[in-house]
């Protein structure tokens, strides 16, 4: 017979919720080496071959701005614009409000070797044009959930990742990303950006792998985005159609997110410019049929088409005619919540799908 305490423990575990990371930057406490420079990461001038983390940045920690958290080359100054209850007796401790980032705040308090700067969830509305000039090795800049009305000028040329979503940015001017040669990711969703807010040449010269402009006010795919994109996410906008020239430049895309828009029409031939596409999200739109051109995408594996107005699925809508044409079989096709009489769909329609569990159909319910 099992002890009562063990049974109680097992019951508690079975009802526990999935793990959820609470701290925005908690993962840096587990692994700081990626943020070190080459000499530090190689263990130079250490007897054991492993860098002494306690001796790397004593001066840096001593200069950590008030109210912030500093670990190795990471400066975390998030949530300084809020106040919260602390301790008993209803006591309140007001945390400092960070509403601007002047030049002196960076140049005096930090030593120029920081690899990550986190300023999330403050009230920053203005950043001095030379505020980032001392940060010559900065790789990650997170300034989301603030009150910025423009993209900060003169971003460090060493920058790899920029997250600036949930601000008040309405314009992406020409040249704002000039000088950035190592960019991997830009997240700028949650801003009131319209198509007219992108000046011609705004992304000129920028090499970028990942771009997300979700929850904005786009009515179409913006023009002249970086040709090097592997992922483009434009979900939760007001895009109504995909025209032939919209995807002409993005032959390297392997993931395209267009869910939660108002797309009614995808012009024939539009998808033919995406030969490397592996994942296509078109869920929660107003499509009345499966987009043409899917059978020609030899690497396509995942298609989200649920919650549209699709009334019919043809036998050749997904798979090419003939064997050996498609190089990767589908492992995910979602068609649920469409007015399709699924019992009328021929089994041969999904002849290039890995197995039947990869198809999500279900009944249409109003």
Main attributes?
366 residues, elongated, Leucine-rich repeat, LRR (right-handed beta-alpha superhelix), mainly beta, 13-stranded mixed sheet
Please, what is the average pLDDT?
A: 78
Tell me the major beta sheet: 13 strands, mixed
Radius of gyration: 25 Å
Which H/E pattern describes the elements? Answer: HHHHEEEEEHEEEEEEEEEEEEEE
CATH class of the domain at 31-83 and 94-147: Alpha Beta
Q: What is the number of E strands?
A: 19
Into which percentage range does the β-strand content fall? 5-15%
Helix content: under 10%
Query: So how many helices?
Result: 5
The CATH architecture of the domain at 31-83 and 94-147 can be named as Alpha-Beta Horseshoe
Residue stretches low in confidence (pLDDT < 50, at least 5 long) are 5-62, 82-97, 104-109
Give the overall shape: elongated
Strand order of the largest sheet: 1-2-6-8-9-10-11-12-14-16-17-18-19
């Amino acid at each position: 017979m099992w002890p009562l305490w063990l049974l109680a423990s097992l019951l508690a575990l079975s009802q526990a919720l999935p793990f959820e990371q609470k701290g925005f930057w908690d993962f840096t406490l587990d692994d700081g080496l990626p943020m070190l420079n080459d000499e530090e990461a190689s263990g130079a001038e250490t007897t054991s071959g492993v860098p002494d983390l306690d001796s790397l940045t004593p001066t840096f920690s001593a200069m950590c701005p008030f109210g912030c958290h500093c670990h190795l080359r990471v400066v975390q100054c998030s949530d300084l614009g809020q106040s919260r209850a602390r301790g008993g007796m209803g006591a309140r401790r007001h945390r400092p409000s960070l509403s601007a980032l002047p030049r002196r705040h960076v140049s005096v308090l930090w030593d120029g070797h920081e690899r990550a700067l986190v300023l999330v969830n403050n009230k920053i509305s203005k950043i001095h044009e030379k505020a980032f000039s001392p940060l010559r090795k900065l790789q990650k800049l997170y300034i989301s959930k603030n009150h910025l009305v423009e993209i900060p000028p003169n971003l460090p040329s060493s920058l790899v990742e920029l997250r600036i979503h949930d601000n008040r940015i309405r314009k992406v001017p020409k040249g704002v990303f000039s000088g950035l040669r190592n960019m991997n990711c830009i997240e700028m969703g949650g801003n009131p950006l319209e198509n007219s807010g992108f000046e011609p040449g705004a992304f000129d010269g920028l090499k970028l792998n990942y771009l997300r402009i979700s929850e904005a006010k786009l009515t179409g795919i913006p023009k002249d985005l970086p040709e090097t994109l592997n992922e483009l996410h434009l979900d939760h906008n007001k895009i109504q159609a995909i025209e032939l020239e919209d995807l002409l430049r993005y032959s390297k895309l392997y993931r395209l997110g267009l869910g939660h828009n108002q797309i009614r029409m995808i012009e024939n031939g539009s998808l033919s410019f995406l030969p490397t596409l592996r994942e296509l999200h078109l869920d929660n739109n107003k499509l009345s049929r499966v987009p043409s051109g899917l059978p020609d995408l030899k690497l396509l594996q995942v298609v989200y088409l649920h919650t549209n107005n699709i009334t019919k699925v043809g036998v050749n809508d997904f798979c090419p005619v003939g064997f050996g044409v498609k190089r990767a079989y589908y492992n995910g096709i979602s068609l649920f919540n469409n007015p399709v009489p699924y019992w009328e769909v021929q089994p041969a329609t999904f002849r290039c799908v890995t197995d039947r569990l990869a198809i999500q159909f279900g009944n249409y319910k109003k």
